[in-house]
Amino acid sequence: MDGIVTEVAVGVKRGSDELLSGSVLSSPNSNMSGMVVTANGNDNKKFKGEDKMDGAPSRVLHIRKLPGEVTETEVIALGLPFGKVTNILMLKGKNQAFLELATEEAAITMVNYYSAVTPHLRNQPIYIQYSNHKELKTDNTLNQRAQAVLQAVTAVQTANTPLSGTTVSESAVTPAQSPVLRIIIDNMYYPVTLDVLHQIFSKFGAVLKIITFTKNNQFQALLQYGDPVNAQQAKLALDGQNIYNACCTLRIDFSKLVNLNVKYNNDKSRDYTRPDLPSGDGQPALDPAIAAAFAKETSLLAVPGALSPLAIPNAAAAAAAAAAGRVGMPGVSAGGNTVLLVSNLNEEMVTPQSLFTLFGVYGDVQRVKILYNKKDSALIQMADGNQSQLAMNHLNGQKMYGKIIRVTLSKHQTVQLPREGLDDQGLTKDFGNSPLHRFKKPGSKNFQNIFPPSATLHLSNIPPSVAEEDLRTLFANTGGTVKAFKFFQDHKMALLQMATVEEAIQALIDLHNYNLGENHHLRVSFSKSTI
Fold first, then answer.
1. DSSP one-letter string for 502-516
2. Given a cut of 60, is residue 369 above it in pLDDT?
3. What region holds the RRM domain (predicted)?
């Protein structure tokens, strides 16, 4: 219909960046997708008094600084985890959008969440605030594409079949045949665990089963919901999103399978409906308390904002924050802190080098400071918040030099080096330029081989002249008992099992980077296997 004049409710904020309430003018020449919005001088005057920093809560949200090529689906996906999205208006010429949620409560939750975790779309930060308008009035004939996407999403949310005859171009929602999704992760520069996937996808419904595997050198997973509708909603919201900032991209399709057969509950597969399943050979068993928690659907509610690299475009994926390990500190937000406080250390034995080696299994340690007045405690600065979270989850409660160590997030942002000329007895060491960092190279295989401390160690870079007996003797000399040994990969690698996890930790600290001759430095890490 030509010449329609429709009122559009839009929010008011700071200065010219905000669109004032005005009219959408459509003429035979106007571009439907790039709507023309005008405001006259009276409107400008009228709204000056409302130009305040924090508007009163409203179920209409104003979203700014959107990337130019962003789609309606991506904007709607920002709101999906918080409740039903009831309307959307894209203002592409201005790189802005208005999103209306069903309730003010959902909008408040969304704004509060994104004030703690900056949302990103296509790796760009975007900004969300309340609009001054209480509802969004749009003319559906001018907003057809957005309305089609919205109808499709609503069909999924209300468990109806998507409307027949509705065309949604690249955002098309096809009827979901299967409750099983096939997930491929591209650019996996950080480890993505089964728990991370559970955390992300649980936002869209009860996840019943997950199986992870590597195929064609890519980490993949099959994930089963109780209802195909949940699978469809998760695919719509998460396909193409990054789990961590600029990496670990989710590629999601429906699987041809309609049911997964999970035999074992371990770090590769899990049936959340059957916590009693065995762990299988060579896989770490689930702690009984964890297994019991898995039996409850509400066991793994997210701690929003627990990791800083999570520049995730929607809060469903942001739930991965709490998931870097099963044993986090519930309710405590890591906020991207890179510095750890380690206490209850054996002050007679511990050195900055030993802490660098052990914590270096989970990230690139930058600096270590053993506290001058409290030598059973140390500050350790990792390369990023994800690494500090991993190290805390895996090393808190482990035994080092005979004492159970405690690892928590420090309030310090960095570890200070001593002033020049000041002798601090070698208690502080800068490892920023260490050649021993395991994770400096993007895409390194080390990212996929991060495991909890275990009695079995993985050895690599073994020269041809070194025999099994040499390695058994070397590791026995660290004060433990070698229980089993197995060469593989033409004797370049081996698995070696100590009697206890504590003995394996000690052996790793003592022998990682040990010079075996022929310019071969031994590499030691924890293994998920047993011999």
1. HHHHHHHHHHTT-B-
2. yes
3. 59-133, 181-257, 338-412, 455-529
